[in-house]
Amino acid sequence: MLKNILAGVALAGSLVGGAMASDSPYLTGREQLLMLADDNPAELTQWRGEDLFHEVRGPKNASLERCDFGLGPGVLKGAYVRMPRWFEDAGRVMDLESRIIHCMKTLQGFTDQDDPIARKHSSDTREADLVAIYTYVASQSNGMKWNPPMNHPMERLTRNAGEVLFHRRAGSMDFACATCHTTPRKRIRLSFLPVESNVEEWSKAISWPAYRIGHGVVRTSQHRVRGCYYQMRQAGIQFGSDASIAIISYWTHQARGGVATLPDLKR
After folding, report:
1. Catalytic annotation present for 180
2. pTM for the whole thing?
3. In total, how many domains does the chain have?
4. Active site residue: 103, 177, 180, 228, which one?
5. Where in the sequence is the domain holding 37, given as residue range(s)?
6. Which residues lie below 8 Å from residue 9, measured CB to CB, with a gap of 6+?
7. For the segment 69-95, what is each residue's pLDDT rounded down to a tens digit?
């Protein structure tokens, strides 16, 4: 939405105009990026996701309106910034994408082989239902602060496992997430990289879903995790696995208190 973009520009501008101006080239670059667009194309994906969320479909002829994202059935406002979290009915810590799939199975009767679940990512010719629903649900937390719960032992264990994975060097290049995201002013080509210890930078870096200008589609947190592992030349990470959710849990914990921009716009 246009108001999402303007809010992001205003926030980045306030940081760039203040003490962050000389310290955060990442935030300066974000402000310039957002000013290139009149609107965020993710708005179209968000609208489609809203329709899919309320649509009665699947073998059980049900909508997702009774899905519990952690704050009660059907409560969307503020739910995404409080994830990943433990879900008693599933017996595991879940991020938003894995929770949507859980509800598509239990409430609507879809299976892993059905296209709405089997298709995890969008292409330039076809948008995945999961991405659209994820974008709509996440957008209901726009402008709120990241605040994932750490009350359940498994929530803390998942975060701690994510921290280990974040710093674990592996693969042919001996890279870790920390290789790129712990030292200020590092960059890939012309793009400055966010530092995970800087809440202002990191809260924007993990603001997914986001419209990727270079891809021409909306991408999700799970897609970003997969992309990072590919760039590090590490073994591929499975969508929705405990390892992928652990990484996202640590990412979100490090952004605690920072403002989420949902959906975001990225290069």
Report:
1. no
2. 0.89
3. 1
4. 228
5. 2-266
6. 31, 34, 35
7. 999 999 999 999 999 999 999 999 999
